[in-house]
Amino acid sequence: MLMPTPSQRAPLRRARGLVARAVAFGRGDPAGRYAPTVSATDRSSALEVSPATVQEWTADDPAPQVIDVREAYEREAGHIADSLHIELLTLPAREGKIDRERPVVFYCRVGARSLMAAQAFRAAGFEAYSLDGGLLRWAGEGRPLVPEGGRVADH
What is the pLDDT of residue 61? Predict the structure, then answer.
């Protein structure tokens, strides 16, 4: 397994801090636990959901909120139609813009950033999920991206 370089570890440390702050601002568990105890039979116990599940859920009424937590240049390259864009580092400040009464699905390039967001929001009382495999898996399964000809941006 390759170890991250110091420059690669810095964003991860910032993201971990974000999760802790997200729990605190979201009226969640201020002790810093990231996932509540949920019954094994409760569908919300799964944090990661497949692209097929997300696509199916978007046909529901009301549809879940699908939120892209990637950086602006990544979003511009391609994204899921009708998704919102809230960069991971600005997520704590924008929590009030997310409807607590509707499920929320976060996504990023491969699923790491969105999983942190889902954990923090789940701990804060939201029904929150992360797109398993991220946008790479979504596009790899042939699901559409916008704008037309959209692609998954490189890091």
Answer: 87
Distance in angstroms (rounded) separating the CA atoms of residues 95 and 145: 25
Decide which of 5 and 139 is more confident. Answer: 139
| Residue 86: strand, helix, or coil | coil
Taking only the tens place, the pLDDT of each residue in 32-51 is: 333 333 333 344 579 999 99
Radius of gyration of the chain (CA): 15
Residue 33: C-alpha distances to residues 19, 29, 54, 124, 133 (Å)? 10, 6, 26, 10, 24
Length of the chain: 155
Quickly list H helices, the chain.
6-25, 51-57, 72-77, 91-94, 112-123, 134-140
- What is residue 146's DSSP assignment? B
Residue that is written with structure tokens 């809230």 in the block: 86
Which of the four pLDDT bands, split at 50, 70 and 90, describes residue 2? very low
Residue 78 contacts residue 150 (beta carbons within 8 Å): yes
What pTM did the predictor assign? 0.74
Q: How far is CA 35 from CA 22, 32, 45, 108, in A?
A: 12, 9, 9, 20
Rounded to whole angstroms, the Cα distance separating 131 from 120 reads 15
